[in-house]
Amino acid sequence: MQKIRKGDQVVVTTGKEKGKKGSVLRVLESKVLVEGVNRVKKHQRPNPVKGQTGGIIDKEMPLHQSNVMLVNPATGKGDRVGFKFLEAQGGNAPRKVRFFKSNGEVVDV
What we know:
Elements: E1 9-12, E2 21-27, E3 31-34, E4 39-44, E5 55-60, E6 63-64, E7 68-71, E8 78-79, E9 81-86, E10 95-100
Antiparallel strand pairs: 1-2, 1-7, 2-3, 3-6, 4-5, 7-8, 9-10
C-alpha cells in the first residue's frame, strides 16, 4: 500500500514549485505526476502514423514522492501519513487504512 495514490490532493514541499497544490494524475514507481505542477516545454516531432502534429507542447513531469505531502482537508495544509489497521467487522480480516499523523483522521473511508 502506498502513502500517495492516484486522485489524492497533494502539496509540493520543496523545489521551484513549492507550495503549489494539485491532484495526482499518475503514480510511477517512486515518482508522482501532479496536475498543473512541474510543467515543461517539450519539442515534439510530428508523427503522421499516430496523427501527432509537431511543435512545442506543455507537459507535466514527475516529482519524487518525498517532495509532496497529502493535503489534510481539516487544516488545508500538507500532513504526514501513517498506516493503521481497523478492527474487523462481520468476521472479515482487519483493514489497513491511511491516517493523518496530526489529528489521527482516517484518509480512506
